[in-house]
Amino acid sequence: MDRLKGQVALVTGAGSGMGQVVAKMFAQEGAYVAALDMLEEGLRLTKDLAQEKGSHIKTIVCDITQEDAVKAAVASTVQEFGKLTVLYNNAGIMPEADHSVIDTDVEIWDRVQAVNLKGTFIVCKHGIPELIAAGGGSVINIASFVALVGCTVPQDSYTASKGGVIALTKSLAAQFGPKGVRANAICPGPIETPLLMEWLLTDPAAKALRLARIPMGRFGVPEDIGHLAVYLASTESAWMTGAELNIDGGLTSFYF
Predict the structure, then answer these.
(1) What residue segments make up the domains of the chain, in order of their start?
(2) Taken in order 187, 60, 1, 7, is the CA torsion positive or negative?
(3) Rounded to whole angstroms, how far apart are CA atoms 88 and 142?
(4) Is 54 left (phi over 0), alpha (psi -120 to 50) or beta?
(5) What CATH fold (topology level) applies to the domain 8-190+222-244?
(6) Catalytic: 158?
(7) pTM
(8) What are phi and psi of 244, to 5 degrees?
(9) What is the mean pLDDT of residues 141-161?
């Protein structure tokens, strides 16, 4: 399929999990893809998966908390593919030491904010001018359902960072809509990534408790997010901007 033919997408956190799957799906839908991650080995796998269909993908080892590195990655992408039309801000961390505000170290708080929120800011800072130069495009920011509801087992820095991503997304939509740039936030529920599954497989009670809260009766898979991402990256969503899109199996609509 060619739903993204002619698009050039930069995907952060593309070396594993949801970012890896989305980078592959973008490439298979006809986009040229710059896949960014700090994990060189993961990027090699991403490239192999995407190129099974003869797709065009460029891998860049990049720490998105470092402005010079992001600036260089954006420039390299434009130099190779001629333009940039999609920013997919997926990179994020969720360390075990991130708890409540009353027992989370400041160092942990700052590290989460640096990757999840500051990293998104830096990519947008250097990527959005290229989207404008290309005549418009789509910014897709990965937030989370946890930014929309409270939790008695908190990850407060992660939650705050994702709330910040939603707020930033709405500001981007208002600022850059007149210049042809759309900005939307995806709020995934629990997704079957290696990080989540490793934890839940060792704690059956925790897994059962969380599944009981999801009306659809299963965790999401990266492809669930990928299908929405393809839509937001394509011209099919040409009049959608400033939205926060829950894709959580009904979790945030569940009361009891």
Answers:
(1) 8-190+222-244
(2) positive
(3) 8
(4) left
(5) Rossmann fold (3.40.50)
(6) yes
(7) 0.96
(8) -110, 115
(9) 95
